[in-house]
Design brief:
DUF2267_sf, mainly alpha, globular, 0% strand, 163 residues, Globin-like
């Protein structure tokens, strides 16, 4: 008889390291969060002709500035439909954290994004349009209409589907 048979140390490798169902569920959830976020970034990269780092920076900057412009619970409603990892990044956005919404138009929006991303206003507008296009593909049309409804006419123009 072999040593492992006598001592009973021949253990099925599948039974080792068995995780509890809660841990597996959490891991699957985190994997989905990552996949959803990466899919959003890949889409934005294609739309805006950006690399991954540029896409992430653009998304956070544009959405953070947008949230400064939205009143009531509209920012929270918009965030709820965004990928979870993007929501986490927006929560850490110091620019609007705890500050009340304020009114500004297209020029103010362009200026803030331009400063955040250290680009000129034409490039800022290109990135804003790309982010808005990617968000349109992620969020329900009803929510987009609610967001646009709070914006002045010149800012609404940035939401047009063409880049």
């Amino acid at each position: 008889m072999a040593d492992t048979e006598r001592t009973g140390t021949n253990i099925n490798p599948r039974s080792q390291g068995t995780e509890d169902p809660g841990a597996r569920r959490e891991q699957r959830s985190e994997t989905r969060r990552n996949q959803t976020y990466k899919a959003f970034l890949r889409n934005l990269m294609v739309i805006g002709s950006m690399n991954e780092e540029e896409a992430e920076r653009a998304a956070v900057s544009v959405l953070c500035v947008l949230e400064q412009r939205l009143f009531g619970e509209e920012a929270a409603h918009l965030e709820a439909q965004l990928p979870g990892k993007l929501q986490d990044l927006l929560l850490r956005c110091e620019r609007h954290l705890g500050k009340p919404a304020s009114k500004f138009g297209k020029d103010g929006f362009l200026q803030m994004v331009s400063e955040d991303l250290d680009v000129d206003s034409l490039e800022a507008e290109r990135k804003i349009r790309a982010v808005f296009t990617a968000v349109r593909e992620q969020v329900s049309e009803g929510e987009i209409e609610d967001v646009i409804g709070q914006l002045p006419t010149d800012l609404r123009e940035l939401w047009q589907r063409t880049i």
